[in-house]
Fold these 2 entries.
Entry 1:
Amino acid sequence: MGLTLTAILLGIVEGLTEFIPVSSTGHLILASELLGYDAAEWAQFNVIIQLGAILAVVVQYWRTFWDAGIGVLKLEAHGLRFARNILVAFLPSALLGLALKDYIDILLGSPSVVGWALILGGLAILGIERVAKPGPDTSVADLPLKQVFGVGLAQCVSMIPGVSRSGATIMGALAMGINRKTAAEFSFFLAVPTMIGASTLELLDSGLAVHGNVGWDEIAIGFVVSFVVALAVIKAFVAYVSRYGFAPFAWYRIVAGVVAIVWLWSR
């Protein structure tokens, strides 16, 4: 398969899976096994195109970020609470990620871990959906610190490849009584500092020079594709889960995990 086509396919995978609870990292790891390309050669590509998906959040919710930023500069209560809540939720995974980076890198090389995490995560989503009692509609800025910190702790579980960052944060929010729409939007907002931090750390660790046959042309293609696809997904996702919930994504995870494990064992 040509480099350009691979870049397009991986950009689509990233854009489709970054913000829904199915694990973008897990799907990219499985894609390397399925398509047979050198995962190490595409590692930097995978990191940078995540920023394309993050840009989609900023574009979709630009008014929210703009108002919050102006509010912080003017020391207004709403803007300060929004920034505080995002920061408090971001800190647990930031500190734990720095402490466990080497161990996380080892897990990223294990497709079988992804398969089992997809299955267990799907079962967890079904269980939480059954018992969760979502609260009233509210804004991220108005969430109490106890719930915010709980979401931050839940995000730490997503360091296991296949768990899904969005899935962990959304399910953590639902378990603490946050309604579906606010849970999804909180997950989107929290993705911005989390993914920028993770991408920056990875790029500083690996260096800014591209390696192997994958160049900046392929990275640019993947970035644009992931941005466009993620923008479409974000718009549809909130409306869908607000009405139908997360069970379809849970069943997809379970089926995909079983298929992945059977395929990996049969090779």
Note: The chain has a mean pLDDT of 87.
Entry 2:
Amino acid sequence: MKLTKKSHACIRLEKNGQTLVLDPGGFSEENAAAGADAILVTHEHADHFDEGRLRAALDANPAAELWTLAAVAEQLSAAFPGRVHTVGHGDTFTAAGFDVQVHGELHAVIHPDIPRITNVGYLVDGAVFHPGDAFTVPDHPVDTLLLPVMAPWSKLSEVVEYVREVKPQRAYDIHDALLTDLARPIYDRLVGGLGGSEHLRLAPGTSAEV
């Protein structure tokens, strides 16, 4: 698979001429979902879900489909009948030739006073895991973890412990739009030194084979 990092939490995966896009939200590029054959969205927060961008991508490709949880699906299903699929923990499906397993149910705690919303993670082809906004540990080995490296709901020690729990071969940073260049060496040193897995970072628009 070819993995391309887009800004913040958005990732594009390409295989056999098909493109799968995860979480093309408001912190990502305007065209982050353009050309997608399938789109997966982990939850409803604006940095992961941008309704206008999803509508544009689905309009541009009448064969494109969306898989997501109910809170997002209900905003789009009427406009795209038969193309918006609601999923939850334990579900499996095939999207644009990619085999996907759904893991997780709730967003991480931001603050005890803020009610938790639903959140799902996606394990793609049994190899690449995007957890959304949670530290979900799949009951399946993970080769490539897309690591939410910096968020209002986490601290660095939790990020390190998450890598240790999942035990991926490699972890690529995502959820990094709020992380300044000044802080990156600190995160690189601690996550890479303590996590126990290869820790990698792609600049937006760059790619790697996974």
Note: Residues 88 and 113 are 25 Å apart (CA to CA).
